[in-house]
Amino acid sequence: MTKELGYHVQNQRQLAGMTQEELAHAAGLSPSTVRKLEQGGSVRMETLHMLARALGTETSALMTPGSPEPKEVNDAHSIRVMELRKVLLPPIGLGAPFPPTGEEPNLRNLRNVTRVVTRSYFEDDYSKLADKLPDLMRDVNSAVAYFGHGPEHEEALAIRIEALRMAGRYLTQVREDDLAYQALSRLISDAQALGRSLDAAAGISSMCWLFLRQARFTESTAMATSIADEIEPPKISKASADHLATWGWAYLRAVAGAVRNNQYDIAEEALRMARSAATAIGREVQGAHQAGVSFGPVTTAMIDIEVSMAKGDARSVLENADKGVLSYKARQKLGTPHRNGWNRHRLDVAMAKQRLGLHQEATMELRRIMGSSPDWLAHQRMAKDIMRDLYRKRKRALTSEMREVGAFLALDR
């Protein structure tokens, strides 16, 4: 964080006619937190959101350009990403960065390798993903160049779209923002070249996620709403499930950006539109253009819980997290979202439990995710925030489960 951020908070507070103590009380924070921030200290994104809500302004109004939270990296991670960086950001010369090889590419094999890479992403096997993606990207780039036109060229572009989709998602997940932007930009360009509007829309939806993680809430919401408007089906009753899923997810991206920016009216309207798409489908579907990410009544209900958590309504989260379409029985009938989506939902539940002082229950939620998706959990800043909050508020000795989760997340008390 920079001193400019502290200045923006101070300015907004003074415009609202509030003292530091009054702002802290309204936001549910300690006066020392507000004082530290205004003096140029560092706070979490969640804290900024609480301050903005108390000031009656958008979170983005408090922020300076760029992400307010530094990216956490390690040497092993940097080494794995380096080869992918070389492919996505090649040196510029007079020749093509990836000229075609003399041997004709085997598009069928490239398609199979792409499926393996996609499976690695959804199995949270990021090490395998990072190892395979660079060679795959080089090969598909060469294939696109080798087949300069015709059906083979279009097939090579379609394969590259899928490879770029996984590269963009993975790089966003591990907070390599510049590379993620490159991958998603190229995906959108390839999709437009093929006239595949839903693939382009799904790429833009992923770009919204990237902007969201950079705290570019206003841009993310505007972009998501715009693409949702563009791909709205003429008749919902006649639209394919895949079209509805892509359209619905665009609105869910708008929800995520708006609610984090305290634009609750925009979030509620976007959520209403997403629900209409989910109701028309009637079940959870794995959208082809979303490459394995599910959409349907259960997914929209999870986002509804996320909205409650963003508003700070922890009690509503716990009251509704396992009821209705989110109950086990309903999920057996309607379909279960992808594991990462469900894990994200359970992080909201863990956060709600921690907010209400249910320290051990919050820990057990994290421990269950750790058991099923350790690689995914390791990259979730929200999990670390939950445990850090627990460390601050816990008066008694830590339980063995708390120590286990804290050690996994590399946290010290």
From TrEMBL:
It holds the Pfam family HTH_3. It comes from the Bacteria. Signal peptide: none annotated. Residues 9-62 form the HTH cro/C1-type domain. PROSITE patterns: HTH_CROC1. InterPro entries: Cro/C1-type_HTH, Lambda_DNA-bd_dom_sf. This is Helix-turn-helix domain-containing protein.
